[in-house]
Write a structure and sequence with these properties.
globular, 7 helices, alpha+beta, about 230 residues, 12 strands
């Protein structure tokens, strides 16, 4: 118990200082940065890139949302969604990217699902992101199955797995009681951790409020009954 005291005190104190000022600063910075260019590819977020007029969601993986906050291995809040996007941009590093088009994404007809690979490499970005712990594995997948890649990253506490977060799909729907994943999750600090991962709603831009949305920045739709 005593050996955990610094961690517990640090997390509680950080959490107390976080709200509302620090979280506001983190979230405010997140959407101030536009999509990043990587040669012929535009990186929108940690698992979405655009080639020409076509936007691709990388098959078999799911990266944190741009406005998603995680906790790192020092119990500090971490804008992991922005970091995932930036790491994908660094991984591409200005090189040409090719995507195998797997068809229109059933979750959003504005984009396609793809298996994307950097020119001259044999391993897809889909697999590399899972192996480096920059995205989690998801099923069903159309072609690329990244379960083994993600398991390796989780065992090594690489990338996202070094910290604590909720799965991106659970963050998107606001599932505050979703499973906590990552090497820094603490069952005895569950309430404090969730308060960091799901901060209080902040003031919305007028356009979001007018349209009936609940979150600032990306304007997520209100859950039913809210």
């Amino acid at each position: 118990m005593l050996e955990n005291t610094p961690f517990l005190c640090g997390l509680v104190l950080k959490h107390m200082r976080l709200r509302p000022f620090a979280i506001f600063l983190i979230l405010g910075a997140i959407l101030s940065a536009p999509p990043l260019l990587a040669a012929n590819a535009i990186v929108h977020d940690g698992d979405t890139i655009q080639l020409g007029d076509v936007t691709y969601r990388l098959d078999g993986i799911d990266a944190p949302e741009l406005d998603q906050i995680c906790i790192d291995d020092h119990a500090d809040p971490w804008s992991c969604g922005v970091d995932a996007r930036d790491q994908l941009t660094k991984l591409i590093n200005g090189r040409a990217v090719h995507c195998d088009d797997l068809g229109v994404d059933k979750t959003s007809k504005r984009r396609h699902v793809g298996v994307c690979t950097i020119e001259g490499e044999s391993t897809s970005l889909n697999q590399q992101l899972a192996k480096q712990g920059l995205a989690i594995s998801v099923e069903p997948a159309l072609k690329v199955h990244t379960k083994d890649n993600a398991a390796s990253a989780r065992a090594d506490k690489a990338g996202l797995w070094k910290g604590c977060l909720v799965a991106p799909q659970e963050f998107r729907i606001g599932k505050k009681d979703g499973a906590l994943i990552g090497g820094s999750c603490r069952a005895d600090r569950d309430k404090e951790i969730r308060a960091v991962l799901f901060p209080e709603d902040l003031a919305q831009p007028p356009a979001c409020a007018a349209a009936g949305f609940r979150r600032a920045f990306n304007c997520r739709a209100k859950p039913a009954g809210k």
